[in-house]
Design a protein that fits this description.
Elements (H helix, E strand, L loop, with lengths): L1 H11 L3 H8 L4 H11 L7 E5 L5 H10 L4 E6 L2 H12 L7 E5 L12 E7 L8 H11 E12 L5 H21 L3 H4 L2 H7 L3 H10 L4 E7 L4 E7 L2
Helix pairs in contact: 3-4
Length: about 230
Amino acid sequence: MTNEIQSIFNRIAPVYDQLNDWLSLGQHRIWKEMAVKWSAAKLGDTTLDLCCGSGDLALRLARRVGATGQVYGVDFSPNLLETASLRSQRQYPQPVITWVEADVLNLPFDDNKFDAATMGYGLRNVKDIPRSLQELYRVLKPGAKAAILDFHRPSNLQLRTFQQWYLDGFVVPVANYLGLKEEYAYISPSLDRFPIGKEQIELARQAGFAVATHYPIVNGMMGVLVVSKF
């Protein structure tokens, strides 16, 4: 399954940002900025962005930590990492970001390395959510926070119906037009499998996080899990 998802993200890399705009009704940048703020990253921090995609959150972290800080952007898609690297090279001043091709289930970092971390639209796609949270816990310093943003199935039946209508009636046809129908067919099943807020909190606590809070946004169609390591 991991290789299949990796292949999907490699293929959608050229239009990844455009598709995120369509999926989120153009609002994903606002929610990503919220996630960065909730991570509590500050000037001079060493920070981590997991499943970094084309680099949106990593670039935001870089602005927050400044020239004295450091950002590591991790993804298993070399195509997306190449896109992210090209984007960062166009920034002025040049952000201090290290792009790392790696699996979030087996991070190539020492224990207690990072002051803050983010993950945007990645947790839903990992094959072992508890293991990914354990790895995140391992690499964070004591006192560090992480903010994890993702799409969800809302509990409200009308909103769930709207979400499915939007996926079926707009996102999939657009993806089909771009020749990416198969690539985006995985979205609905991934939403069905993804743990809801309370379940995410419990998984985070099982991974070792002393404090875990889930903030539903957009009427529960999205949410941010904020975790703290003590």
